[in-house]
Specification:
Layout: E1 4-18, E2 28-30, E3 32-36, E4 39-40, E5 49-51, E6 65-67, E7 72-76, H1 77-87, E8 101-104, E9 117-119, E10 125-131, H2 136-145, H3 153-156, E11 163-169, E12 171-174, E13 178-184
Parallel strand pairs: 7-8
Antiparallel strand pairs: 1-2, 1-8, 1-13, 3-4, 3-12, 5-6, 7-11, 9-10, 9-13, 10-11
Length: 193
């Protein structure tokens, strides 16, 4: 009995990018990505390990070496449209958000369960870490090109910022590829047990 159940949902890849190491989180659009166990070569979030950050400050002192489960930032077209509408923009370019992948077709994408898998045509498999909470960095990037709109990002992106993920099986992704969604086959956690 498999512990991951394939769903009927597919995420069609409509945008790919990478954030060069150093500097801002502004991504550079790509037609394809080669993904290794380290993530994307030359990318800001590349590496099998990483220094801990504010997101895990209740677990580790800052800069403690930990496993890198934040190699990729994945968003949905649907969530980006809602963010843009709430900000009063026609659209929010994934470049500003440090995006690696933007998909279309998976509902409630930001809340895909942790440990779910997204699998590409050649077998490349991405493991979902968790929801990517909004921060001020994308707002700063937006503000550079759309004065007055950057401060609106964090509130507009609440519950819509997509997910972080890591490479479980290396491979390639191209624009137009479809990612199959597998979710853990378990009941929801009940913390009152």
């Amino acid at each position: 009995m498999p512990v991951l159940r394939e769903t009927e949902f597919r995420g069609d890849i409509v945008w790919l990018g990478m954030v060069p190491s150093g500097g801002s989180i502004r991504a550079v659009a790509r037609d394809q990505l080669e993904l290794g166990f380290h993530g994307i070569r030359g990318e800001r979030h590349e590496g099998e390990n990483r220094p801990s950050c504010v997101r895990v400050k209740n677990l580790y002192q800052r800069d403690t070496e930990i496993r890198n489960v934040r190699q990729l930032t994945i968003l949905s077209v649907e969530d980006l449209a809602l963010i843009a509408a709430d900000m009063g923009l026609d659209r929010v370019d994934p470049v500003y958000l440090g995006a690696s992948i933007v998909v279309r077709g998976i509902p409630d994408f930001t809340f895909v369960p942790p440990s779910s898998r997204l699998q590409g045509p050649d077998g490349v498999t991405l493991t979902v870490d968790m929801e990517n909470r909004p921060c001020v960095l994308p707002g700063r990037e937006i503000e550079q090109d759309h004065s007055g709109y950057g401060p609106k990002f964090k509130t507009a992106a609440e519950n819509r910022r997509g997910i972080t993920a890591w490479v479980e099986r290396p491979g390639h992704l191209r624009l137009g590829d479809s990612l199959r969604l597998f979710v853990p086959d378990q009941r929801a956690w009940n913390g009152e047990a």
